[in-house]
Every structure is written in C-alpha cells, then in structure tokens.
Amino acid sequence: MQAEIITIGDEILIGQIVDTNSAFIGKILNSIGVSVYQITSIQDDEAHILKALTEAENNADIVIITGGLGPTKDDITKHTISKYFNDTLVRDLSVTKNIERLWRDYVKQPMQQVNLDQALIPSKAEVLMNTVGSAPGMWLEKNEKVFISMPGVPHEMKLLMEYEVLPKIKAKYKRPFILHKTLLTYGIGESMLASRIEEWEDNLPEFIKLAYLPNLGKVRLRLSAKGFDEKIVKTEMEKQIQIVLPLIKDVFVGFENDGDLEVLIGKQLVNLNKTLSVAESCTGGKLAETFTANAGASSYFKGGLVTYATETKIDVLGVSQAIIKEHSVVSAEVAEAMAKNCRALYKSDYAIATTGNAGPTKGDADAEVGTVYIAIASKENVFSQEFSLGTNRIRVINKAINKALELFQKEIFKN
Amino acid sequence: MQAEIITIGDEILIGQIVDTNSAFIGKILNSIGVSVYQITSIQDDEAHILKALTEAENNADIVIITGGLGPTKDDITKHTISKYFNDTLVRDLSVTKNIERLWRDYVKQPMQQVNLDQALIPSKAEVLMNTVGSAPGMWLEKNEKVFISMPGVPHEMKLLMEYEVLPKIKAKYKRPFILHKTLLTYGIGESMLASRIEEWEDNLPEFIKLAYLPNLGKVRLRLSAKGFDEKIVKTEMEKQIQIVLPLIKDVFVGFENDGDLEVLIGKQLVNLNKTLSVAESCTGGKLAETFTANAGASSYFKGGLVTYATETKIDVLGVSQAIIKEHSVVSAEVAEAMAKNCRALYKSDYAIATTGNAGPTKGDADAEVGTVYIAIASKENVFSQEFSLGTNRIRVINKAINKALELFQKEIFKN
C-alpha cells in the first residue's frame, strides 16, 4: 500500500513557504500502515499537474494532492483534476450550504461570486466536507487508484485528513502494521554511535530498518518495523530495543514517542511535584516558549524573564552591577546570579538561566559570538557551564536551548 | 534555466522531519534567476534514486540532490550517484585532509573508518569542499546537465550552496532576471481582496504573475516578474505596485522584502528611538522570541516577562490581586495592568501584554479556550482588545502573536 503526495504551489518552489503539509500527511498515513513512496512539489500549471498525476498514478495506490483550491485566480488545480478525469464541474448543494453558513457565522464580510463557485466540483468526485473553510476536499477513483484533493491551508487540510480521509482509507484497504521507535541520544557523534552498535545493527531482522538522524548535538536512532502480524512486529521491536539500550545507556535520554526532551522534563517535574522558571538573555524567550508550547506546562512552569538589555538584568532581575562589571554580562557569575534571582522571584523550585552572545555582532557583551553560559539553580545549589556554539545566530539560539534542556534533564533525573 | 531539487531520506517521507532544505535552495536559486521546476522527496533506496535522477535529467538543466551523505549505513546516495554515472569511488586527498582537520580541531573524539571513507567520491566528480562537515559536496556533469550533491545537514548544505554552488552556476549559465515583491496585508479575506484588485490583476503584463498566500489573518500578495532585461522588469514591477497600492491602502502593512511585521516594527522603533518590552501569559515567551530571533533586536527590545502562573502576575509583575479577582485573569483589565507594569519595570517606551487561554483546558482561567486579550501601553495611554482565536493551542498562540504585532504596528505607525 503506497501513497504519493503532490503539493501544488509556486510559493513552495520559490522557497517562500516551507511545505509542512507533506510531513503531516506522511506521518499520519504512516501511523495507519500506508507508506509514502514520494512527495512531489510542483507548479500551479496545468501541464505540470497533469504530468504529476499521471506519474503518481503509476507509482502509488493513493494520490494525495494539496494546495491550489483557494478562491482566487492562481488556483487551477480543480479545473485540471476535472480534465484529468474527463469530467465537468457541477455545483454541489452541500458545499454551497457550508459556504453560506461559514459566511453567515464567521466571515461576516460580503460574499463574492468566487466564494460561491468553490462549490463547483468534478461530477465524479465525492465531497469531503471542509467544515472550517470554503474549499471542499474531493475523493475520486480511477482504475482502482484513489485520488484525494485537499486545500493547502494547513489546519483545513489537517481536519480533512483526520476526519474524512483516514477513515475512508482505513475502510477501503487492508494495511500492514507499522511501528516506529525513535531513541534520543545526546553528546556523542553519529559515527561513534554507529561503531558502538554496529554488531547489533548488522543483526537486525529484515523487517526492521535503522536510521541515524543527527541534529545539533543530538542523534536520533529511528527503528522502523513493518509487517502484517502486529504481535510479531511489536515483540521483535521490543527485543531489539532491550539489546541496544545497554550499549547506549550513558547517552540515551528517552524515546521520542514519549515526546521531546522538554516534554520528558515536564513529566519528571510533575512526578517530583517541582516547579520551574527561566531567565533568558541570548535565548530571548525561546526557552520559555519551548516549555509553554506544550499543553500542561502550567502544572510545572511558573514563568520567566527575558532580560535582554543589560540594565534589565540589574533593574528587573536584581543582578548586581558589580558582578557584571567584574565578570562581564556574558559570564558564569552573571548566569548563576540570574538563575538564583529568577528562582527567588518566581518562587520556583528550579530556575534555568542563559546569557550569551548569539551574534552577529558583539552587542552589549564583550564575549565572542557563540559563547553562552547556562546556569541552573535549585534549592541546594547553583551551577553553570560554558558553551561555544558557533557563529550562526539562529543556530546559536537553538543549540543553547538544546544544551539548557540537556543540562537540566541531567539535574532532575540524577537521583 | 530550470532546476529540480531531489531530497533523499525516509525521515522526510514518514514525516519525522520537515524538509526545510528545499525551501532554502528554491529561494536562493530564484534569487539568481534559476527557476525550480519541481521538488521531489524520495526514499533511501537505490532503484528510487536512479529513477528520480533519470526523470530530473529530463525535466531540468540542473539537478540538486541533498541528503544521504552521512557516515552511517543508511546512506546509499553516494554509491548510487556513482552507479548512475557508471563511475567508481576514489579517495580524494583534499577531503581526507579536511576530515582530519575537523577531527583534530573540533570533533575531538576518536576517528572511525567510516569518517575517513567520506573522502571516497566518484572519480568524475568535482569536490565542493564542505569546511564544516565531513561529507563533501559534489559537482558532476552529463550531457550538458549538471548534478550537484550535498549533505542534508542544513547548515552544511547552506554554506555549500552559498559559497560553492551559486558561484559555479552563475559562471556557467546566462540567467534571466527574476524579481519578487510580496505585499503584506492584514484584516481582509482573500476573496474580498481579489475582487478589489480584479481589474488591476487582469491587466498585469504577461511576464508578471500574481499569487495570493493567505495565512492566519494575513494575505500576502506575491508578484513575480521575470525577463532578460533587468531594467524593464524593475520598471514595470514598480509601475504595477504604484497602481495597486492605492487600492489596498487601508489593509497594506509593508513589503515582505523589508522583512516580516516584527522586522518592520523593529525598524520603526529604531527610527522613533523608542524601546519595547513584553509581558506574556498565554503566548508563553513566543512574542519575545519573535523579536529576538532577528539580529539587531537589542537596539529596541529591552526584554520581557513570562508570567504564566497566576501568582507570578501578582508577585513578579505586581498586578493587583483585586483586579484579578474581580475581572478574572483573562480580562482586558489584567492585560492592561500587565502592559502598564511591564513598561514601568523595564523602563521601556512601549509594552505589549498578552493574557488568554490557549487551551486545551481552561487552566487557571475561567475564560473560554481561544479567548485572548492583548494590551499595549505607551507613555500616554494603555488600551486592549479582545480576540477569539479558535481552539487549537498552537494556532491560538500563533494568531495571538500576529494580532499583537498587528495591533502594535498600527499604534507605532499611526502618526
């Protein structure tokens, strides 16, 4: 059972937007045992769309198309799909009603003819009702192949995928069981890790594949197993994990299925009944955001401070001017004072602080671009570590976040 | 002059990572007049790679391949490219030296044979030196077509693209001039906007294309012009913009080439010689991060507070308990108090505050999920606005950021 995803839109090809839809679709199809053979991003152009549809029909059982169903003139997808199926467009009453409802209850702006014309769909298409937008999804079949077309607006596509497309695919096809397990490791390079687990890797059964995914100081090991017997797949996966875990014990931090490091930290803080606050300089709010992006953060995260300008470290966070003068604003001493004072201010059990220079210029600091200090304060203790994180601003910030999470994770899991 | 981008990696197809490389490559190629015909994401599989290379060779003049050049066993790209060119792998001395240097100066872990073997490249390939990673880029030619292969690690690919690939493409091909201008609009729907500018759109010259890119309350209008005479392209683009601007005056906020809204805001604050701080509840640090992600934020951004837990709004930000009790923590009154107190604490000219319920549950607040208040405080004034932003946590946060930027932009551009 294979699918191909086609995303339509010049904005993808010129790099104006990043295609996140395909990743969402790939993930959710995988979860129900449908493999994605290929993702193809193409132009808003009739000839190109027709060519891609023909090729996808040869490659895959299911063709999923997103993009190009909006009301405006740059959208030719619907007409081209109709042409591909030798079909004509007809007005669908249920879609018309849905559009009228949306305009009455939400849009509250005058309706245009182009909006109403979104109810025109190929006569052979089954409507997949889009309850949050005016462009409907469509399901078409041809020579045992299924074609699904959805608007490119991410949240509309996601709802259609979950509530319309998946149930229909599940009902139509018998699918294998697919299981992914991703092991997060920190602090060891890809090739070192590979040589450690080489023997284990060579002896993996045929139906389990291993991939290395390195990223900013962490390497994820992804195991993918596939088979029609769910029990065998699960048992063998578990067995292989039990073999590999002792080999990577010192660098293993958790499974990605459990969530990213910030989620593991959140769970541990809830287990320990402890709270956290953060004081950020160079990470500029991103550390707080990393925690608060996850639902449930309010059970352990009290809040944070972004003391970006040097004087705010003094005025708001109460770091002493003398410490800054003596050690510089990018220093272990300032990071530790920030963590300590933040913890006191927020009355939290722990505080994490960052101070550094993300670049591109030296700014208030005299430290080299890429130098970052991360401090952790607890009731008993405050300590810090210095990092040298390169010269690219965004990468310095992201690596500092990863380092802060890694350091804090070690602290709260140490017992 | 057309290019095709091929990204290799199962992690893309199963949705484990989002392919951001293609967007980067598309954008940078476009900037030098090379159009991207198609982006194709494929499996780590010999047959699939060979098929994609054959098709890309038919579609495009330049084929750019990323991914699959790491040291570990899941990487078969290099061998497959060699096979496609009927070639054999040979050890390259300059790459060997580069790897030895990286290990000596940066990695500082024992070198493995797999690392040294990254210096094996097809004999027909020209090396594109990767100074920050062990996998080299490669440049191969076949029947007047160019094939470029780069590692998938984003920052390695980016450096190779900028310093090795672009100069070689520029030297080899005569390219048309491509110009994009993107107009940001806020507060009007795609179809309303389309009907307003319909006549103008219908009269655009053949070589200027228009696209509508709607996203969370903003619609971007992208004009793309292409031609060999740079002067004509620029003049006509300017002329068309001068015609459309008066039609969208009330909803136009700036050009994307000038940067996103936060960048425009930053520039205006620097012009006005004013500073900003932020107090965040439901946006959890993301508003601060939105500003600090941009270099130069330190010239206007003083910092911010994340007062996530209710008691921190009282303890850290000094919002009165009585106000919270009377109006609830998600209210105009609390948002305004947060903004006012934040401004005072950070001694900034302006402050923006957010309080709301991003969901999925009601948390500390009794407000409906999706209700968000945004307040702006200046020396003269403090005001707020209520928004109802749906029920999806991440979308509520992102929309609140957009609304806050929009509101603040209106405030600082009003004179």
List the helices and strands and how they pair.
Two copies of one chain form a homodimer.
Chain A: E1 2-8, H1 10-13, H2 21-31, E2 35-42, H3 46-59, E3 62-66, H4 77-84, E4 89-91, H5 93-107, H6 113-116, E5 120-122, E6 126-128, E7 137-142, E8 145-150, H7 154-172, E9 177-186, H8 190-196, H9 198-202, E10 208-215, E11 218-227, H10 230-244, E12 252-255, H11 261-272, E13 276-280, H12 286-292, E14 301-307, H13 310-315, H14 321-327, H15 332-346, E15 350-356, E16 371-377, E17 382-388, H16 393-412
Parallel strand pairs in A: 1-2, 1-3, 3-8, 13-14, 13-15
Antiparallel strand pairs in A: 4-5, 6-7, 7-8, 9-11, 9-12, 10-11, 15-16, 16-17
Evaluate the radius of gyration of chain A: 26 Å
> Which residues of chain A sit in consecutive blocks of at least 5 with pLDDT less than 50?
none
> Which pair of chains has the greatest number of interface residues, and how are they split between the two chains?
A-B, 108 and 108 residues
Oligomer: homodimer
Mean pLDDT of chain A: 91
Distance between the termini of chain A: 47 Å
Give the total of beta strands of chain A. 17
Largest sheet of chain A: 6 strands, mixed
How would you describe the shape of chain A?
globular
Report the β-strand fraction of chain A as a percent range. Answer: 25-35%
**What class, by secondary structure content of chain A?**
alpha/beta
What percent of the residues of chain A sit in helical stretches (DSSP H or I)? 40-55%
**Count of helix runs of chain A:** 16
Main β-sheet, spatial strand arrangement of chain A: 2-1-3-8-7-6
